[in-house]
Write a structure and sequence with these properties.
With 308 residues, this protein is of the alpha/beta class. The protein is built from nine helices and 14 strands. The two termini are 33 Å apart. Bound molecules: 1,4-dihydronicotinamide adenine dinucleotide and oxaloacetate ion (OAA). It comes from Methanohalarchaeum thermophilum.
């Protein structure tokens, strides 16, 4: 498998290291607009291959020609938010970057599966999909796996159970309006409500929504990288090994959940060809209302992307 990572800042370089450590692909290409950055990191990563028994061919580049014939491309390019900012404040700046990168992917590697990470996530997945004009199964965004992991982590800390025994799903937008599915949250099949009060569960839901912001507030200028790169690995492995994992990803909806022409987080089966199937859950009325509100909010923001 050939994997290209576009944007080798915090998330991109953390991902690259995890890919090398896991000897996950045959070829890894790093691209960044900053002169020398991708080349420097790729050389450093290559030096680590004898130590982690990896035989990946790593290359750093400023040129998009090098991404030709990638099986998979991860876009981690673009600005991150600073303390006090909302992810949506990045819309115009990152919209332009995503448009130019997805045009380059179209030119040099139009058959790749593309996983978008850049924020505001659902809008950037939409922009990538619309610019590339490919089958929709090929384009998805990483967020739901990260948000679900954060909810799991908080539940595990609170209850003392192993995170391995916690099942949950966070769907909807990658924003403060994300929807952790409380009624589908279990400890090894036992509903979470048997262990925690309604009020405490709601507090953990709110903490999940603010998890990314907490990291940003500590860092001041920069955002999370380790958990996002772990979440990306889950998606990459499911594609590479055709694992058919059920992973929430941001995806272009065409009627699923009664939503059309926006990208939002939904549970999907991820295999070697990208998104194999969207799983339509029978959501509670309150959750469905939240999905419809998110649809409206994302649609309003799409208007601001049209002139980009
Ligand atoms: N979906 C999610 O759950 C998450 C999303 N993010 C988002 O991912 C993006 C990247 O975050 P970080 O790695 O922390 O940022 P960063 O600033 O550390 O790295 C971004 C890199 O992109 C490069 N870049 C910018 N424009 C480019 C272009 N046109 N072509 C190639 N490279 C370009 C920059 O030179 C920089 O090296 C941000 O938008 C951030 O908000 C971050 C964490 C989680
Ligand atoms: O919070 C941010 O800006 C980065 C991100 O999306 C996350 O960590 O969830």
């Amino acid at each position: 498998m050939k994997l290209s990572v576009i944007g080798t800042g915090s998330v991109g370089s953390s991902l690259a290291q995890r890919v090398i450590d896991g000897n996950l692909v045959d070829e890894l290409v790093l691209v960044d607009k900053i002169k020398g950055l991708a080349k420097g990191y790729s050389l450093d990563l290559e030096h680590s291959t004898p130590l982690c028994e990896s035989n990946i061919d790593v290359r750093g580049s400023k040129s998009y020609e090098d991404i030709s014939n990638s099986d998979l491309i991860v876009i981690t390019a673009g600005a991150g938010r600073k303390e006090g900012m909302d992810r949506s404040d990045l819309l115009k700046q990152n919209g332009k970057i995503i448009k130019s990168i997805s045009s380059k992917i179209n030119e040099f590697s139009p058959n790749s599966i593309v996983v978008v990470v850049t924020n505001p996530l659902d809008l950037m997945v939409y922009k990538t999909y619309k610019t590339m004009d490919v089958k929709r199964n090929k384009v998805m965004g990483m967020a739901g796996s990260l948000d679900s992991a954060r909810f799991k982590y908080l539940l595990a800390k609170e209850t003392g159970f192993s995170p391995k025994d916690i099942q949950t799903l966070v769907i909807g937008p990658h924003s403060n309006k994300m929807i952790p599915l409380k009624k589908r949250t279990y400890i090894r099949g036992i509903p979470i409500q048997e262990f925690l009060s309604k009020g405490r569960i709601n507090e953990l839901v709110n903490a999940t929504k603010k998890a990314g912001e907490r990291v940003v507030n500590y860092l001041g200028d920069g955002s999370a990288k380790y958990a996002p790169s772990s979440a990306l690995l889950e998606i990459i492995k499911s594609i590479k090994f055709n694992e058919n994992r059920l992973i929430p990803v941001s995806f272009y909806l065409n009627g699923e959940y009664d939503i059309k022409d926006v990208c939002l987080g939904v549970p999907a089966i991820i295999g070697s060809n990208g998104v194999k199937e969207v799983i339509e859950l029978d959501l509670a009325d309150e959750e469905m209302e939240q999905m419809k509100e998110a649809e409206k909010e994302v649609k309003d923001q799409i208007e601001n992307l049209k002139d980009i």
